[in-house]
What we know:
UDP-n-acetylglucosamine1-carboxyvinyl-transferase, Chain; 2 domains; four-stranded mixed beta sheet; 24 strands; 3-phosphoshikimate 1-carboxyvinyltransferase activity
Amino acid sequence: xxxxxxxxxxxxxxQAPPSKSYTHRAVLAAGYADGAVVHDPLVSADTKATMRAxxxxxxxxxxxxxxxxxxxTGFDGRPGTPDDxxxxxxxxxxxxxxxxxxxxxxxxTVLTGDGSLRSRPQGPxxxxxxxxxxxxxxxxxxxxxxxxxxxxxDGGAVEIPGDVSSQYIxxxxxxxxxxxxxxxIDLTTELKSSPYVDITLEVLxxxxxxxxxxxxxxxxxxxxxxxxxxxDYNVPGDFSSMSYLLAxxxxxxxxGLRVTSAFPSAQGDAAIVDILDRMGADLDWDRExxxxxxxxxxxxxxxxxxxxxxDLLPTIATLxxxxxxxxxxxxxxxxxxxxxxxxxxxxxxxxxxxAEVEEKQDELIVYGEDSDLVGTTVEGRAxxxxxxxxxxxxxxxxGETTVAxxxxxxxxxxxxxxVLDSLGAAVKR
Length: 429
């Protein structure tokens, strides 16, 4: 599906979609439990992959007709061996989290995904499972899916790098809680994207599981049970997805845009509020009521490190292309290992639109003062965050911007273009 956005303004009120990160963790935590009801989940291609994995391990998942709740009957910490291969589709979070689940069962589980997912690194997590005396192999022996994992781990100590993916840490903590001995994690390199592990610790706590940071890394005791208070869990709004709405407001909301469900949480991507403020956006956050109001503003480029907020790079790059001055995005090398190489993708696609961009291995530099955005056809790269960021750029580009392959927004924000349309943006399918 191609989407065409014509230069236009937005206004009104939009509700932030539920958090993808919290939904993944809550659904799997409910699977580790006897069960739970997850309220206000994000129902997307990625989170459906996690739901299918819970069912493959012996749980059951029932989605309400209006998608307001997911009722999970769990496998109570004892996953069974799946009857078939688990397909994680394009969801890296699903694959990494449920790879550790596979290590808990005695037999072998096969996990795979689409072409993009089969190119993403899983080697450090496979090595960690082997350190715990589990079985973990890449079928192509390149550290990438398809994976074959099992062995019935009891727990123990692992050494693992922290600068490839924080999802490895999340996977081990979640599985370690129901292992017999627990897992001690020693980080051999600095942890990137650490707020995502903070999200994991928050969800674990809400499900009655104790895990904590240590001087060396993290630890979780074994023999614990997952059980949320009252059997219910509420998913907060998603700041990663919210970033596109807030950016649209800062660039194109002459009369202001209000975003609801913006309550504070452990999400690192809430940093988008501070980033917009530093760039000079007219913005106000009512934290108590979970509302952010933002208006079209004259923005100025800044330097931003994304070591802890990799998903914000496409949004920041778009803002930089429309701002005065230079926007320098640093600590970005790990952003190359997402659904696509997001550093190169944003450099190449914004250049097509007339932006002056310099790409380095660990940085993306956008020269806003030398950029004059014009509509053209850009490629979404089968990456939801690239698609949404380029669509926002289209709001302020001269003429029409066509984003090819726009259907992939279903990964995290399925009704993104409907929301843009409801806010007054000129969107044509």
